[in-house]
Amino acid sequence: MSILAFQGKNDPKVYLEWERKVEHVFDYHNYSEEKKIKLAVVEFTDYASIWWDQFVINRRRNGERPICTWEDMKSIMRRRFVPSHYHRDLHRKLQSLTQGSMSVEDYYKEMEIAMIRANMEDDHEATMTRFIGGLKKEIAGVVELQHYMEIENLLHKAIQVARQMKSKSSFKFTSYSSSSWRSNWKNNKVVTNPKEDVKAKYSNAPPKGVKELDISLFNA
């Protein structure tokens, strides 16, 4: 397992994702705190490398102690690459997050990721209440009739309800389209009267006697 490069972009999502993956590597290996810092710094590129070098120089110049632990390094990097309003924005997003046009599963993932990034530690009841509150009303109306011990059970039930509703909606549309086609076919079908057809056929025939007149003129 290797540590990914970090360029130092001003995107808190990019930094937090990099930090998360670095922690996976450190959890796998039993590195010392000094080695953790060195391994992370080695993967700094572009702006991140220049910024860190200058940061170390300034601390040495000011007589401050060097960074000795990974936790201290994370704190410093978060102060630089994660703005103070980032977590406020995440909390605000969570407060207004609803399913909208998303599937139930995508809505849940969006909520869960926002909670993780905001470092929110809701209890199970609060999380389930938050989840139900953002579901479409017709889905929420069904799932909230039951009690759930775990958020996963609630999620699976909501997905099931959404699929059933989609299936019923599709069946109704198919039935309506079929009945509508039959109705239009009946309305457009031409009903003919056999007597009128016969009458029309003979009404187009030449008057009796015309053929005889033509023959008599030819003989003359």
Automatic annotation (TrEMBL):
- InterPro entries (UniProt xref): Retrotrans_gag_dom (IPR005162)
Which intervals hold domain Retrotransposon gag? 38-136
**Superkingdom of the organism of origin:** Eukaryota
Tell me the protein's name: Retrotransposon gag domain-containing protein
**Taxonomic source organism:** Mucuna pruriens
TM ranges: none
